[in-house]
Automatic annotation (TrEMBL):
This is Uncharacterized protein. It comes from the Eukaryota.
Length: 674
């Protein structure tokens, strides 16, 4: 072997994440690499994360999906049966290939030492070009597991990294064993360097934090072919899941996954015109020019040359006129004055302007059309009076707008850009949203004639299209897809070509015709990040990413939100989940609806699930924000959003929250005074 293979170590322990000095496994594992694996391995990185699926996955993916992916990642910790132990789940979801052989080797080695090795749940496999294995948290257990596989690992790593497998295998197993330094003897009885009476703590670290944080269940990040959770629609209703196999995630976890898997904003150049409204600047914009570009008068009056003593009492000849128009102006001498209008350039030599209100017309030209002499009665006149100096509003070269600022529709920013002649700006591309409805029962909302039994007018599409536009996003209307896999797949594919984000509604409950999840996973090769959220309304909300290639042939991923079919649920989940993703892609920060404290105007019943109760918030006489329910909150009642300008975040519970209680509300629309 030429260059040594690279390995990284991930210590999974909430305790060690807080205090790295409590970790003992890292050093022990490095010793194994330097001992049994001498010359063959370099450990290039070591990180500590807490027992948290997302943190574990984030770190592993940072390693495996980057340009310098290591050959081998080993984790230590979180493989036991405690509620917080979730390393195997986190890792399994990332694997492209599983490696039960490695697991077997690790377990049988440890089992030879203690039956308590059964309490470890190791997994191993390959993600992209990296072999991954999970070791127990106890330094001894971890060491022994690594020793069990380290000699054969280089072979697996080389294959995973793309080495020619025929060449690797030429010469047979014997040759492989010899190269790996495995002798017949060492194969039969693994050389344990430790005594046999040690206590085997395969449960990992002592977790001092509370169990059951957020979601410690499987987060799907599957290769669709390997283990999709969705129904296989070909199997029919008798074989479908009778309960959703998707773990229920909290709203906060759902939002953090959306944040994590939504692509970074794209940067483009845009003309400064109405199309740029709503865009966020991806650059700092500097003034190209001074405003004003010339010395200009602030008032209508007479340009003067202020004498030393500031005394301007007397009758002065009007020698010229300066209008607010481009052109040459004759210079002014002391003792002369020139009529000037607001915003007009000062004649060269003029040092102040006297307001017309402070003057008296003395004489006219013979034809009576022009002023000849004007009397001024001013004392203590200062140079610069009533003059806007060059660059006094905006100085050339100064920053007028910062990166991250939004050019909003009420005018301030676009006005500033226009004033200094910035005709193009670098901004984040606002994502284009493709919106479709699904369901055999759904008909166009405006189809004439009476409804047949079972028909439902498409409420969601026009509702979401309007909401997305109102928030400043361009929309592609993708129509209604039938509850047939191929119709859905076709519509989604067409949507992915035209839009950056897809929103579907319907087809995510538990019925046999609920085809969104299977189509995303099985036909589009997508990854469902969550398929159930603990909330009301909107429990079946589904968030996925699908791999696509852009016109340049680059691989990227696009997000799909599959919202529930019930119209109130669809609109609430759009605001709660889709909007933050659109905001992130548009470079808008902070993302999502603004959160404000409100006071309940009456008693609100609580639900076992956190509820997003539709309310009208008004500013009371005392300046306090008061929330009143819009009435029936059933998820099919889109009327619950009529006149609603906010969603009250009702905590889960029994009974009621009383009138006057303080709660948080998410603002969707303008709040008005009573
Ligand atoms: P599904 O998730 O497809 O089972 O839909 C749940 C409920 O929402 C059903 O009663 C559907 O008829 C209804 N629904 C689905 N899509 C729409 C839509 N676009 N407009 C109005 N109702 C819908
Ligand atoms: Mg349906």
């Amino acid at each position: 072997m030429d260059a040594p293979l690279t390995a990284t170590i991930l210590i999974v322990s909430t305790t060690a994440a807080l205090d790295p000095s409590t970790d003992g496994a890292g050093a022990v594992l490095r010793d194994v690499f330097n001992g049994d694996g001498t010359g063959k391995w370099t450990v290039t990185d070591q990180k500590i994360v807490s027992d948290n699926v997302i943190e574990i996955q984030k770190q592993i993916m940072q390693w495996t999906d980057g340009p310098d992916a290591p050959n081998f990642i080993l984790t230590t910790g979180g493989t036991g049966f405690a509620a917080s132990d979730s390393t195997p789940e986190a890792v399994t979801a990332l694997l492209h290939k599983e490696a039960p052989g490695l697991v077997h080797a690790m377990l049988s080695t440890s089992l030879a030492v203690t039956p308590f090795a059964m309490m470890s749940r190791p997994v191993a496999g390959v993600r992209s070009k990296t072999v991954i294995a999970t070791l127990p948290g106890s330094p001894k257990g971890a060491k022994e597991n690594l020793q069990a596989i380290i000699k054969t690992l280089p072979h697996a790593c080389l294959q995973a990294a793309g080495a020619n497998s025929r060449q690797l295998h030429a010469g047979g197993t014997k040759k492989l064993e010899k190269e790996a330094g495995i002798t017949d003897g060492s194969r039969k009885s693994h050389d344990h360097s430790h005594s046999h009476d040690h206590q085997h703590d395969h449960r990992g670290h002592n977790h001092s934090h509370e169990a059951g944080h957020g979601h410690d269940k499987l987060v799907r990040h599957t290769m669709p072919a390997s283990n999709p959770l969705s129904n296989d629609p070909n199997l029919g209703p008798t074989r479908r899941h009778r309960e959703s196999p998707y773990p229920m995630v909290s709203v906060d976890d759902a939002l953090s996954m959306i944040g994590e898997f939504t692509p970074e904003p794209e940067i483009i150049q845009r003309k400064v015109n109405k199309e740029i409204i709503g865009s966020v600047l991806a650059e700092e914009v500097r003034a190209r020019e001074n405003v004003p570009a010339f010395r200009a008068s602030i008032v209508d009056g007479y340009a003067v040359v202020v004498p030393q003593d500031g005394n301007l009492k007397g009758v002065f000849p009007v020698v010229g006129v300066s209008h607010a128009a481009p052109g040459e102006i004759a210079p002014l001498q002391e003792g002369e004055i020139a009529r000037i209008t607001t915003g007009a350039p000062l004649p060269p030599g003029a040092t102040a302007v006297i307001m017309v209100e402070d003057t008296i017309l003395k004489s006219m030209t013979d034809d009576g059309k022009e002023e000849k002499e004007v009397e001024i009665q001013a004392e203590g006149v200062q140079e610069g009076e009533n003059i806007r100096e060059v660059g006094s509003d905006v100085k050339q070269g100064t920053t007028i707008l910062s990166k991250g600022e939004q050019i909003c529709g009420v005018g301030g920013e676009i006005g500033l850009l226009a004033s200094v002649g910035v005709a193009e700006a670098i901004v984040y591309k606002r994502p284009v949203v493709g919106i479709l409805s699904t369901g055999d029962e759904i008909i166009e909302y405006n189809r004439s004639g009476e409804l047949r039994l079972g028909e439902v007018r498409d409420t969601n599409r026009i509702t979401l299209i309007s909401a997305a536009r109102e928030w400043g996003f361009e929309v592609v209307d993708l129509g209604i897809a039938k509850d047939k896999s191929n119709s859905l797949e076709e519509t989604l594919r067409a949507g992915l070509r035209q839009a950056d984000v897809l929103i579907t509604t319907g087809g995510v409950s538990m019925g046999e015709l609920d085809l969104l999840k299977p189509t995303i996973e099985r036909s589009l090769g997508g990854t469902i990040h969550f398929g159930r959220v603990a909330m009301k309304p909107g429990k079946p909300t589904t968030f996925a990413t699908v791999p696509v290639k852009n016109n340049a042939g680059q691989r990227l991923s696009k997000v799909i939100f599959s919202l529930p079919g019930n119209p109130a649920s669809a609109l609430v989940t759009f605001h709660l989940f889709v909007l933050p993703s659109l905001h992130k892609q548009a470079g808008i920060s902070p993302v999502g609806l603004a959160r404000v404290p409100v006071v309940l105007g009456h008693d609100f019943a609580m639900d076992p699930r956190p509820e997003y109760h539709r309310v009208v918030v008004t500013v009371g006489a005392d300046g306090q924000l008061m929330a009143n329910s819009t009435g029936g909150q059933r998820s099919s009642r889109v009327g619950s959003l009529r006149s609603a300008n906010a969603l009250v975040c009702m905590p889960s519970g029994k009974g009621k929250l009383e009138k006057g209680s303080k709660v948080q509300a998410l603002v969707m629309n303008t709040i008005r005074s009573l």
